[in-house]
Design a protein that fits this description.
By secondary structure, the protein is α+β, with helices and mostly antiparallel strands. It has 2 domains: 93 residues, Beta Barrel (OB fold (Dihydrolipoamide Acetyltransferase, E2P)); 46 residues, no CATH class. It is 23% helix and 44% strand. It has 3 helices and 12 strands; from the N terminus they run H-E-E-E-E-E-E-E-E-E-E-H-E-E-H.
Length: 163
């Protein structure tokens, strides 16, 4: 860690502010929203984003371990580094209140409160497999499990937006 007073003295002496510099990602902590980046001389603990909001609002981009990133300092404080640019992305996590979107090579999670798109689609497919019809000898006259489909339709309507 660079002492803030030393950093300010260097800035005054050299007349330059803290530059953006490159490093290699060594470790990513997805729970804390930080990673360890080695610039060739020092291993820095770095924020995934300049703004850290503890109130369930966040947008984290996870760099791939071993990839290059560019780092910047918040208010020119070398102890408060964040990723400015990513060489390779492993995943993304966007959370706004009770809605979350996660994307990685394994797929994506779309979640609103306790409902997920995967669960909705799974339930829809299950209902389709259980479809039962009433007939009057040859013609189909009624879908017997219509209520199940209407319940799933209502869940989709609460989960997804029109625009």
């Amino acid at each position: 860690m660079i002492d803030k007073e030393l950093q300010e003295q260097l800035t005054r002496l050299l007349g330059v502010r803290t530059p953006v510099f490159a490093g290699t990602v060594k470790l990513v902590d997805k729970k804390k929203g930080v990673c360890i980046v080695d610039d060739g001389e020092i291993a820095h603990q770095v924020r995934l984003t300049a703004v850290v909001d503890e109130n369930s609002h966040r947008f984290w981009i996870y760099p791939a371990v071993g990839s290059s990133v560019l780092l910047g300092a918040i208010y020119d404080d070398m102890n408060r580094l964040f990723i400015v640019e990513y060489g390779e992305v492993e995943g993304v996590d966007l959370k706004i209140d009770n809605t979350q979107l996660k994307v990685s090579k394994d797929g994506f999670l779309l979640k609103k409160q306790n409902e997920t798109l995967k669960k909705l689609v799974s339930d829809l497919i299950g209902a389709i497999k259980r479809m039962k019809f009433a007939t009057n000898g040859s013609a189909t006259i009624e879908l017997l499990n219509r209520v199940e489909f209407e319940a799933i339709e209502n869940r989709f309507n609460r989960f997804l937006k029109d625009s």
